[in-house]
Amino acid sequence: MPKMENSEVMKQVLRTLINVSSRKTTDEYAVTALNTLIKQLKQQYDFLKNIQIKDIQYLEESNPVTVMSAMNSVPPTEIGKALTAIISTMNQSLGKNAGHFFIKEIQRNLEEEYSSTIKDMGVDLNLLQLEFEVAQMEKDITRMQKTI
Predict the structure, then answer these.
(1) Which one of 104, 121, 132, 148 is most buried, counting C-beta atoms within 10 A?
(2) Distance CA 145, CA 118 (A)
């Protein structure tokens, strides 16, 4: 199997994020939240400037994500770090709307070739889901302790 380009991997993961998020909220909110998140993370990951997220509600095209080919010169491990930050932050920003298995849903909706490619980049969706669940349990325990 030929090596996938970073730009294609990033585009597919972001599209999947929007699709899963929009089922939990609205298309408009999913696109806006991801766009805001990408803008915030540009400070940490300069190469995210090569991503453009458009609100397609009033456009004739159906693809809100554009990733420039300049993304292909970025080391895959850096892409992986940015993807991890994007996925976990998006999960947090959606809050209770994301649902308990938001990351699992992303994993289910990503084609196998993309899942294995992001895993090679250092993105472990199973670990992200586990970390989220542990953080939720800690919040629940803290909340219960305050009521005692």
Answers:
(1) 121
(2) 39
Q: How far apart are CA 75 and CA 7, in angstroms?
A: 12
Q: What pLDDT digit, counting tens, does each position of 76-126 carry?
A: 999 999 999 999 999 888 777 676 788 999 999 999 999 999 999 999 999
C-alpha to C-alpha distance for 101 and 9, rounded to whole angstroms:
22
Report the distance separating Cα 145 and Cα 148, nearest Å. Answer: 5
39/52 Cα distance (integer angstroms): 10
- In 10 A of CB 68, how many CB atoms? 13
Decide: 96 and 140 in contact? Cβ < 8 Å.
no
Per residue in 13-43, pLDDT tens? 999 999 999 888 888 888 888 999 999 999 9
